């Protein structure tokens, strides 16, 4: 099976890698939310650099910034859509109990952050109650789909930065 263009092929790879990483984190080796976020960010950057270099190589070692940005952004967007759709299926059809575990992970991260900044105990309890309510509601299919739009802004920013480093103009080829 030959999937072209490159951004689609690598976007699918990125989505599948994200799914595998998430499953390992949820069911095999539970990491904290912070560690999971950092590793997910590194995975995204690595995939975007790989697809950018592959696109440049396919273009005879020339890759204008605009084309680099298009390739890296679309790769990231496809990966985000695939992993989000999988998460919707996972928490709504396959393992609804996972919402409780993910909520707990989010609550632990929120509590740690609030304690680090020295939030008073009464305000901490109030904030934690609100955070728990928000976290549980965050796993509805509608909220997850809206998350794709929020994630796409983040992906665009990362893709724009990565594209600066992988672009190669004709005069430098």
Which helices and strands, and how do they pair?
Layout: H1 6-27, H2 33-58, H3 65-94, H4 98-116, H5 121-137, H6 141-166
Helix pairs in contact: 1-2, 1-3, 2-3, 2-6, 3-6, 4-5
Essential attributes:
single chain, mainly alpha, elongated
Structural commentary:
The chain is mainly α. Helices cover 81% and strands 0% of the residues. It contains six helices and no strands. The protein is elongated, with a radius of gyration of 19 Å. The model has no long low-confidence stretch (mean pLDDT 89).
Radius of gyration: 19 Å
Shape summary: elongated
Biggest sheet, in brief?
A: none
The helix/strand series, from N terminus to C terminus, equals: HHHHHH
Assembly annotation: single chain
Structural class based on helices, strands and sheet pairing: mainly alpha
Uncertain regions spanning at least 5 consecutive residues:
none
Residue share in helix: over 70%
**End-to-end gap:** 32 Å
Instruction: Give average pLDDT, whole number.
Output: 89
SS strand fraction: under 5%
Beta-strand segment tally = 0
The helix tally amounts to: 6
